[in-house]
Write a structure and sequence with these properties.
Elements (H helix, E strand, L loop, with lengths): L34 E9 L3 E8 L3 E8 L4 E13 L2 E15 L2 E6 L12 E3 L2 E3 L2 H6 L38 H8 L6 H15 L1 E2 L9 H6 L4 E2 L1 H14 L4 E8 L11 E10 L2 E5 L16 H4 L3 E3 L16 H6 L2 E5 L16 E4 L2 E18 L1 E3 L14 E4 L2 E4 L2 E9 L4 E8 L3 E9 L2 H10 L6 H14 L2 H7 L9 H10 L26 H5 L6
Parallel strand pairs: 9-10, 16-23
Antiparallel strand pairs: 1-2, 2-3, 3-4, 4-5, 5-6, 7-8, 11-12, 11-14, 12-13, 15-23, 17-20, 17-21, 17-22, 18-19, 22-23
Amino acid sequence: MFKHLFILVAVVFQSVLHSQSLPYQAPKETDLDAVINTYLMNDTENEFSILRLLKDEKFELITYHKNNDLICEYSKGQTTLYKNKLSLYTSESLEIIRSGDLNLIRPCSNKYNNDLSNLFFSKSNFYSKKIHLFFKKRPIIVPCEKSLYTQQWFVHPLSGDTMVSRKCFATDDLDCLCAALTFEKSTEREKSDAISAFIISRFHYNRGDTSQTNVKGLVFGKEKEAVCEGYSRVYKDLMERIGIKSEYVSGAVRNTIQDVFYSGHGHAWNQVILDNIPYTTDITWSKSIKSNWYLMKPEDMIISHFEDSYSAENPNLYDSTLTMYDFMQLPYVDPIERNGHNQLSKLDKTSPIQFAQGTFTINFQQKMHVTNITRNELGYPFVRFEGEEQQVARKVIANDGKLTNKISTNSISVNLPELINYLTIDIDGIGTLHYIVINGTENQFYESLISNLDPKNAYSMAIAFLACAKLKNETIYNELKVYMVKPMKFKDFIKNADKMNISQFKFSVFNACHHMGLWTFNGICKKQLGFLITIL
């Protein structure tokens, strides 16, 4: 039989794998009774191809490969016949691949780049020349016998074996999903990239009805929603299915300037070692695998992520002796450039809360390229809890304005027009540093927190009492104690504060909120105070 190397170009109507599609499919059977004719289009040492023409002007083109991880290629669609030219228009392309121990079907883009324009078609036969067509002589491709090539496309026509692993006939198998995602990925980094890209595109951030511990339900469910716990548990599960150990990490994070005033938000992320390199990775915050939050050095990640799940069995990849108070004093850099932590030692002021008198100055050990300095708006109370949104008004205590940009210098100085100033400073090699600079003394700062007291806000109330404890001012205490359900004498208040080591909190009274559990305020229920608990 004439061996015709057949490469098909078709108009492809399917879109390539899009953001929420799955990377593998369960086999779908063809109606074999609809097959009119089958043609052997190509038969070489490495592969052979068959073309099926079906009723309703449909077609299937199947290429079977020999000794290859690409086992089979399959396309289907519609045909048109015009002036004895048969054209094929592809609506779907699939391939069967061997990935690890599994054979599975996955969607693919159309790969063919020639068509049948050099052949003539009439009455089931293909001709190479128009004169042969005219006389219906010397066809080069004719239909095969009816008994040949009549199996389902995913069954090998010679051996009769099903080419897809039985496990991957299911539409919701996590092992088959991983096998499809990591096909032809040789390094651990490449495999992590593929799995992470899938997770990022698969989910929208929202807590749906599916449990965040139900990995299968999250991945294959219709909601396609998850929060940080779900993102991180899916990453851990899929990575470990391909033999790469990953840790699920929980703790506190800072992602707004308000977070420097208390212990941050509860969050979850992952630790992983890829190709012998340790990483921390926050899939939830990553918009793509090019994000700085993806596969960060642990030293960079600790700037914004504090792990509270450390144990001997689940060790930190960074300093396991770090306390929450240490974390709160670390620089707040968001976004941080890769390896940005290496440059922070060149600054003489890195703590996110600073005190100054009139002017705030940062000195550098060497010239650094400062690309932007901005004064930003800041509101108080710094924290607003659930249920308080409609009750608590926020006062503007710092205004915004651009100060300068693009200078190479050994120091920068910024005038402070207000008592509390929120500055962001962009430095090449580090990222964007965020500072709250108090224009005055610590006592003036504490007094401002009391003067901005909002009785409707649990955080504001707790901070006012803590500031009073720091000031040890009986007059202020007498003004505040009217808010206590069970007022106590001033000396007992200070005695309790001393027992709780309030003096050790420096100016970071915000982190001491959990000590207010002994005091209950009018109008604030214990459930509200529960939101103030932090880990020091």
